[in-house]
């Protein structure tokens, strides 16, 4: 092992210190990665800012409220292979992190390039991001993780535009994060929406889900998951409506209309699922409870197709109805 000799001072006495180069490298790495979230292509100060139409990844860790627009008024083109930086932020097209960091991007995002397994959007540690227009990843690398990741209490992403090229990808909310599907999000094509270990999906408009699986999947063993329908309708063209897996955990679906043809609500996990003022219609099976507990409350309704089944209860499940109708 190589060593380095340095002058060290302890209580006004000078000694010779022997420090391994491995330790020095570790200290240097710690210093470097602590700056992994320095602002990059995010402007400065609060208020409305402009950035170049063609940029590398955007990283915002400013603790301020800021709106980003393109300098020429067109789309913002993000090359994920350009100046990626290092650490956790490397590879994501847009990273927003830290309490008080509230970023709105007012133009369409077009993403190219990308590292294997890296998400398109990453918001964590209490950051907030609003995407006003379309996010298009058709030009991104084949190995990129076509994902919008929202992690941690207080972290949120609000989507108001179309998601293009995300087939096979996912919107993933975890550990208390929130995703808002705004009125401009009319369809989720080929994508999964997943809540893991607690979090919220808030629907501000009617949304069609077309991914061949459950429209919204709830997983994990801890935390509270919520799907807030605000009286809106999720239409499932293929697959089921809402599926809950995992051991333990509590989930609530409130004021949501679920329309489709397969299975409306599928309870596979051992936790508790509360349905409050939920309308389930046109499915072959309204609620399938294989395990866990399903509570149907608050004037919820279940209407199935001819020869369909309103509620199926497995040997490991309990279903309680308080004010609901089937």
From TrEMBL:
Full protein name: Right handed beta helix domain-containing protein
Keyword list, A-Z: Signal
Keyword Signal among UniProt keywords: yes
Organism: Bartonella bovis 91-4
Segment forming the signal sequence: 1-38
Domain of life where this protein originates: Bacteria
């Amino acid at each position: 092992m190589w060593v380095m000799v340095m002058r060290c001072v302890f209580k006004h006495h000078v000694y010779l210190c022997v420090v391994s180069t491995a330790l020095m490298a570790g200290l240097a790495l710690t210093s470097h990665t602590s700056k992994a979230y320095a602002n990059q292509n995010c402007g400065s100060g609060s208020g409305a800012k402009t950035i170049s139409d063609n940029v590398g990844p955007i990283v915002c860790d400013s603790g301020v409220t800021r709106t980003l627009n393109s300098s020429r008024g067109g789309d913002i083109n993000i090359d994920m292979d350009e100046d990626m930086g290092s650490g956790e932020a490397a590879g994501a097209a847009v990273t927003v992190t830290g309490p008080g960091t509230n970023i709105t991007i007012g133009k369409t995002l077009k993403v190219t390039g990308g590292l294997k397994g890296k998400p398109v959007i990453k918001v964590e540690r209490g950051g907030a991001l609003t995407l006003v227009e379309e996010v298009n990843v058709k030009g991104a690398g084949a190995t990129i993780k076509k994902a919008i990741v929202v992690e941690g209490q207080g972290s949120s992403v609000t989507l108001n535009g179309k998601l293009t090229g995300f087939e096979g990808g996912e919107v993933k909310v975890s550990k208390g994060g929130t995703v808002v599907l705004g009125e401009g999000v009319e369809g989720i094509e080929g994508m999964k929406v997943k809540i893991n270990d607690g979090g919220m999906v808030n629907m501000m408009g009617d949304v069609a889900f077309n991914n061949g699986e459950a429209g919204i999947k709830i997983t994990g063993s801890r935390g509270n998951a919520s799907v807030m329908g605000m009286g809106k309708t999720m239409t499932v063209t293929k697959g089921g409506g809402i599926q809950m897996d995992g051991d333990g955990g509590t989930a609530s679906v409130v004021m949501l209309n679920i329309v489709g043809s397969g299975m409306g609500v599928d309870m596979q996990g051992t936790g508790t699922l509360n349905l409050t003022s939920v309308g389930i219609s046109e499915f072959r099976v309204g609620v399938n409870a294989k395990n866990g507990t399903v509570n149907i409350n608050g004037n919820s309704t279940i209407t199935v197709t001819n020869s369909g089944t309103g509620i199926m209860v497995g040997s490991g499940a309990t279903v309680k109805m308080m004010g609901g109708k089937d």
